[in-house]
Design goal:
With 328 residues, this protein is an alpha/beta fold. Helix content is 33%, strand content 22%. The protein has 10 helices and 14 strands. It has a 5-stranded antiparallel sheet. A 4-stranded parallel sheet has the order 6-5-9-10, covered by helices on one side. Helix 6 links the parallel strand 5 and strand 6. The radius of gyration is 20 Å and the shape is globular.
Length: 328
């Protein structure tokens, strides 16, 4: 049996990328750089995965508790948000608008407590990689073991519980962003598998008929699942109409708080000494690479793991690549 968390060298499999691309995935980003790092994978024990999943659930619960405190107090000073954003946050939280998706980024080397680096709570990137594409990799490369990857199944089940029967769920993203378009198509596919009627349009082509937002056929949009961040949406020309339109948005506006840079310091202040909120002095290194462990959250439950790594000494930006994982 392999030891706990380690980085492995992996042989390539000739057809797995073709299988992933057949599902609409592209291995190059908009600048022509690879999104994956070939020839490597991270191995975990089942106990490792339990530790990561438990940490992610604790952090998600703390985040929701803190949102409740902030909204109850009406104190948004740390976030620097405008009146419209604060009103939308309060409306959506008090309506108990359901959330769908988030990504908790953790630092961990297999020892001690995983530590929170950031929460990509609104329009997180990397969903397609971590779900079906990573599973295609596992199915192609691994004859034994498992993978912490129930993202696809959890999304389908979550859609069924959203109470959207009778609505057409529209999906929207930046029409110029090919990667976002692919992720949007994937997410839309999970809603269709749940039995929902769906549509798609570039978010910049949202129409307005004076009372409601409309799609490309001039039909009213009652539910919009957006893969553009709220921060961008609030700067767009459509922002003043959002509240009056009555359109339900996924993610809900209260996710603005969790996605804000102020959230991590506030969490540490609200829950001092919590082991998962202690600052990470440095990212751990494996064979000259530093991984960030991304725990995917669907309907506030951890359900999958994706990993982004960079070469030691490089910032997690231009050098960052997705690396798959397995449970040995």
């Amino acid at each position: 049996m392999l030891a706990a968390m380690q980085r492995l060298a992996m042989d390539s499999c000739p057809d797995w990328q073709d299988r992933a691309e057949a599902q609409g995935f592209r291995f190059l980003d908009a600048d022509g750089r690879p999104r994956w790092r070939e020839g490597a994978a991270y191995s975990f024990s089942a106990a490792d995965i339990d530790i990561l999943g438990d940490a992610a659930q604790r952090l998600e619960d703390l985040c929701l508790e803190l949102v409740e405190r902030i909204v109850a107090a009406g104190d948004y000073a740390a976030f620097g948000l405008g009146d419209l954003a604060c009103t939308l946050i309060e409306d959506s939280w008090r309506r108990q608008d359901k959330n769908l998706l988030g990504r908790l980024d953790l630092a961990w080397d297999g020892d001690g407590a995983p530590r929170l680096l950031a929460y990509a709570a609104d329009a997180p990137v990397g969903l397609h990689d971590a779900s079906v594409v990573q599973w295609e990799w596992f199915d192609s490369h691994c004859r034994h073991g498992d993978q912490f990857n129930g993202i696809d199944e959890m999304l389908i089940e979550a859609w069924k519980r959203f109470g959207l029967w009778g609505h057409r769920v529209h999906f929207a993203c930046d029409g110029e962003d090919e990667a976002a378009h692919g992720a949007c198509d994937y997410l839309r596919g999970t809603a269709m598998q749940a039995g929902l009627e769906t549509g798609f349009l570039p978010i910049e082509q949202l129409g307005w008929n004076g009372k409601r937002f409309t799609d490309l056929e001039a039909k009213p949009i009652t539910v919009l699942c957006k893969l553009s961040p709220w921060e961008q949406l609030l700067q767009a020309a459509i922002a003043p109409q959002i509240r009056a339109s009555g359109m339900r948005l996924i993610e809900p506006a209260w996710k603005l708080l969790l996605a804000h840079d102020a959230m991590l310091p506030l969490l540490r202040q609200a829950f001092p000494g919590h082991e998962n909120l202690q600052p990470a002095d440095a990212l751990p290194a494996f064979d000259g690479f530093t991984p960030v462990l991304s725990l995917w959250i669907v309907a506030s439950r951890p359900c999958g793991l994706g990993i982004q790594e960079s070469r030691l000494g490089q910032s997690h930006g231009s050098d960052s690549r997705f690396v798959p994982h397995l449970i040995a």
